[in-house]
Amino acid sequence: MVEVTPDSEQLRSCNKIIITAATMLNNTMDEILRLVSHAERLVVLGPTAGFFPDPLFARGVSAVGGTEITDADAALLRLRNKQGLGDAARKYIIRRQHYPRVLD
Predict the structure, then answer these.
(1) Could you name the CATH architecture of 8-96?
(2) Which tens digit of pLDDT belongs to each residue from 25-34?
(3) How many other β-carbons are positioned within 10 Å of the β-carbon of residue 91?
């Protein structure tokens, strides 16, 4: 079963969790990570996930995924036309177990 909820307290009963990377921007990541330390799998996703994931991996996050813009001009045109990014971008995921640490 998949459940989407804005109620972070409900995360206590989940073992696989996807967190939007916007939690980095709205300053709720620490609160969420405290609630989900039990999770079997914990993934942070979203276009705001363009950062070195070392601190999140150190806190139990399993993977970080985001979007890389490969053609900025095409991406801007698509956004102006209220379209998806299409081939102007590519999705990526970085898994903790395959990640060569960058930050110490």
Answers:
(1) 3-Layer(aba) Sandwich (3.40)
(2) 899 999 989 9
(3) 11
Query: For 36-91, how does the pLDDT look when each residue is reduced to its tens digit (9 = 90+)?
Result: 888 999 999 987 777 889 999 999 999 999 999 999 999 999 999 999 999 999 99
- With H, G, I as helix, E, B as strand and everything else as coil, classify residue 98: helix
Sign of the dihedral through C-alpha 95, 36, 103, 52:
positive
Nearest 5 degrees, angle CA 7-CA 11-CA 13? 130
pTM for the model: 0.76
Mean pLDDT, range 10-30, rounded to an integer: 89
Single out the residue of 53, 50, 9 nearest to residue 32, CA to CA: 9
Please list the alpha-helical segments (H only) found in the chain: 22-25, 29-35, 54-58, 72-80
Q: Are 60 and 96 in contact (CB under 8 A)?
A: no
